[in-house]
Sequence to fold (605 residues):
Amino acid sequence: METVDKTIHVPLTWSQRLIRDVKKSKHYYVLMAPFAILFFTFTVLPVLMSLGISFTYFNLLEPPQFIGLDNYLKLFLEDDVFIIALKNTLILAVVTGPVSYLLAFVFAWLINELGPKLRAFMTLIFYAPSISGNAFLMWLIIFSGDMHGYANAFLIKYGIINSPILWLKDPKYMMLVIIIVQLWLSLGVSFLAFIAGLQSVDKTLYEAGAIDGIRNRWQELWYITLPSMKPQLMFGAVMQITTSLAIAQVSMQLVGFPSVQYAGHTIVTHLIDYGTVRFDLGYASAIATFLFIVMISTNLLVRQILRKVGE
Amino acid sequence: MTFLKTLKQKFKIKRTRKLNRSLYGDIALFILLLLFGSFSAYPLIMTASNAFKPLDELFLFPPRLFPRNITFDNFRDLSELIGNSWIPFSRYFFNTILITTLGALGHVIIASMAAFPLAKYRFPGRSIFFTLVVYSLMFAPQVTATPNYIIVSKIGLIDNPAAIILPAIASSLGLYLMKQFMQQIPDELIESAKIDGASEYRIFFQIVMPLVKPAWLTLIILLFQRLWITDGGSFIFSEELKPLSYALRQIAQGTIERAGTIAAVSFIMMIVPVTFFIFSQSRIVETFSHSGMK
Fold:
């Protein structure tokens, strides 16, 4: 709806126009005010503060001291644990990000072929893990290091291994466990967005496509479904990227905090370590700012790529 | 019903559903869904069934998918453990109800209020604000955890439920979904109300809000899920203000002989949000059909 008044003939300067438009829109600002105030206080301001504090030494008790780039230099040049955390985070993101995105789409697509009742049921089955509180702790029993762990017992029974594997304590297996559990948890809001997107694809397009020579479900997917769902695919990408770069809970609860040889350490667990255990808030803010930049730039990059698809 | 029938006849739905579908493809689809569906459901079924297993069955191998002797002992033990703590259980329960109710209602109201002008009008600052909201979807809340603590303590909200409620009700995902959903309301509807002399606020409360009911429910559920699992973190340290999930987690911190109680705790934490989802699934999916991003 256009609110700019077309009847004014005297040309106004840019600032006069702005003032006039702001005055005319005052009701909109009133409506937005409560959300905007809280959003600025708890989302925008913290990002700016984090950037500011990252250039200081700050322990909450004494006032912050400006130390320039020291935190960042220490982070990249001296902190070996951070390098491990960075490597783990990248591995987790590169594996769980695209895989979970693909799984979310493939399952949404397969489910879409079912009748309404079965579709609702399967949606629940796949979505439930992400909303089940701490039910993922069941994986502690599945991957328990003794003979009673379901995974060990299963593998021993079928003669694949001879002695139980310490899934949660052996650095060789920790990342694998985190990846499996994270994938299990990862069909979240993007999955719902895909299901919704598939249901709202114009059905007549499929008939038209069949007349135009589309012969199987793959062609239908490529030429009709995917292009119609582009906005949802974009939204889903943002959700999956953000989640996959912030993996921490699963790691902390399953392999411990800190994990053996930091094999399950991620950027976020490193951040939690300095922010809430060591109270080196300047350093924690440097980690947070770095993570912020990584998340935003990955998102923007992937959006650029997705935009090109099908053009 | 007749409407549905004519619709079916018009689009020949019976036949088009089988368009371009081979039998082998359908079989492969069925197997895939069965396989991954079991992978997805197995830990949840085990969580549920363990909660009703007696202790000797809990450590049985191979683990039984369903308990042979269903027992409520684990829940009895849980309530005994809670009864022995010096804070009455009802207190934790009340705290969680307070946080989730105020949080979810507050979120729906302020997010809808902000979403309406963003979706339906153009005014200075609109696109900058919405861009900030979209950007905030691109980073995880952990990024802002440290400064948030400083801000909350500066405002003096430490040890106050508002420290958890206020940041949560300004969740940008909710605003984003609500704005996208409101965009499908026809402009003519708002235009004609305006001609009838209705103010922006009346239009919002009497016309827009009733039309976006499915989205309310989605926002409520998303925020409920988030607040349901909060344990108060570093914001709440008084025992009598701690939420339910904190109390349950403390109990779950036990060793092997508490395995049954832990299962009962996990079951409670899981079943509430899942039940919510079951009853509101269709409306949530409807909301997400407008979630698309350009």
